[in-house]
Design a protein that fits this description.
2 domains, Helix Hairpins, about 65% helix, 8 helices
Length: about 200
């Protein structure tokens, strides 16, 4: 993790890797509580409010660094964006963005990997599409709860496989496929919540 009183630009120093900012290994499986503690610890050192009596340059750097720490934390705490980020760090994609651009990526939804349908096997994609149709046709909360529980189990299993795939650092195709699959499953979870809100009305 960065030392106390750190007043150098993180990007210029080459500390643009979000995992390096928090001083944790580049791994899909992270200790969420530890990362949260590190986040607050970093913000206590970098928050702009602490630099009121400093020079204009130091004030500006604190704003930039604090924002980058926020961005890093928000990305790493979400499994889908964390997996997406690891895919790019591992140079799994054919075209990898310049390292300084990695921190500017907003990896939400299923667009971060381009045409994601090419990464998922047809059977899995078909099952997800069928599940979405069934969710849209749900007329009771009990029926929707069954879909919710099933999807939660699928997400948990996918995350476990992702951790193993990234840690082995060998099977990049599997890492890509599972990353996209997780994104689809999370989107399915969001569809369930939307349907839940609709049935509650």
């Amino acid at each position: 993790m960065l030392p106390a009183g750190y007043t150098k630009p993180l990007r210029a120093e080459g500390v643009c890797n979000y995992f390096k900012i928090f001083g944790i290994p580049e791994s899909f499986a992270i200790d969420a509580k530890k990362v949260e503690q590190l986040y607050w610890s970093l913000q206590k050192k970098m928050h702009p409010d602490l630099y009121g009596s400093k020079s204009d340059v130091e004030k500006e750097l604190s704003v930039v660094n604090s924002a980058l720490v926020n961005q890093a934390y928000n990305l790493l705490k979400a499994p889908t964006s964390r997996a997406n980020y690891l895919v790019r760090l591992c140079h799994i994609l054919d075209e990898v963005p310049h390292p300084l651009r990695l921190g500017q990526l907003h990896l939400h939804g299923i667009d971060a990997l381009g045409d994601t349908t090419t990464f998922v096997d047809p059977a899995t994609l078909m099952a997800i599409m069928e599940a979405r149709e069934e969710i849209e046709e749900c007329t009771s909360m009990d029926e929707l709860d069954r879909h919710k529980a099933h999807n939660a189990n699928q997400i948990e299993a996918c995350m476990q496989k992702l951790a193993e795939a990234f840690d082995s650092n060998q099977d990049f195709d599997t890492s890509k496929r599972l990353t996209v699959e997780l994104q689809y499953l999370v989107k399915l979870s969001e569809a369930i919540l939307d349907k839940q809100d609709h049935l509650d009305q």
